[in-house]
Amino acid sequence: MNKICFLSLSVFGQIKYFSQVDSSGIEVNSIIKEHTTTSFFDGGLGEAEFDVFDPNKEMLEACIFFTINRLRIEKKRDALRFNPILQQMTRTYTEYYSSSRFSSNIKNRLRLTKIFKNIPRYLYLDFKLYNGYVNNLYAVDYDKGGYYFLRSGPLGKLNLYRGNKRGYEDAIEANEEPDEIGFVTYNEFAERLLFKWLRGKSAESLKSRSYDYLAVSIQLDKRTMYGKKVPRVKAVYMLGGHRNKLILDGLK
Q1: Cβ–Cβ contacts within 10 Å for residue 209, how many?
Q2: Domain for residue 1, yes or no?
Q3: Are 213 and 174 contacting, i.e. CB atoms less than 8 angstroms apart?
Q4: Whether residue 166 sits in one domain with residue 62
Q5: Which domain, by its residues, includes 68?
Q6: Which of 47, 164, 174, 217 sits a CA distance of 20 to 30 A from 192?
Q7: Does pTM surpass 0.70?
Q8: What is the pLDDT of residues 58-67, one digit of tens each?
């Protein structure tokens, strides 16, 4: 009985997800539209600071898009193209699912796989091969370890410092700069995210010759944006391609 209830809830959740996917309302990312991978990085656009309190979402997603394509070009693969329906699917995914659904684990992987399996039932795409992965990572220059939150700090800053309160006070007393957790650039964030995606099976899909299309969506986790927490983001990418090209992955 419990299994039946769980299955019903799962199916209902997927139906509700697909009902919110509307490609007619999505605009093509203007940065992706106006640039190639080479021109984007040569122009230094991604060197701007990724301010989590005032993010440029279009820049962030474009930077991840081109960072993935730069990897593919280095591996002698064709650059992936933007697809508006995949883009709306990724956007809906980050908006519909909570941050717990973006941890890299088997359960979340199966959820995404079921969505790909059900695409033909709800959407029309002229390609039938799909793949994608999620991640949930820190949005700033932090990975792990203790930190101290300065309650009286200025607005517009994280006010987070590595170590503890005593270490912060000792640095101030010695007229030294405390070890502040700061922002990163858009390029740095994209590289950190790609590093995460290259550590597992997602690496195979990102380097595969079978895919032609790519969409990426990022959303800041609002629950981590205030107080003592370190800001995190929900991230997902989706790929589209053709099954008859799978044979190419066996070639060097």
Answers
A1: 18
A2: no
A3: no
A4: no
A5: 27-141+184-250
A6: 164
A7: yes
A8: 999 999 999 9
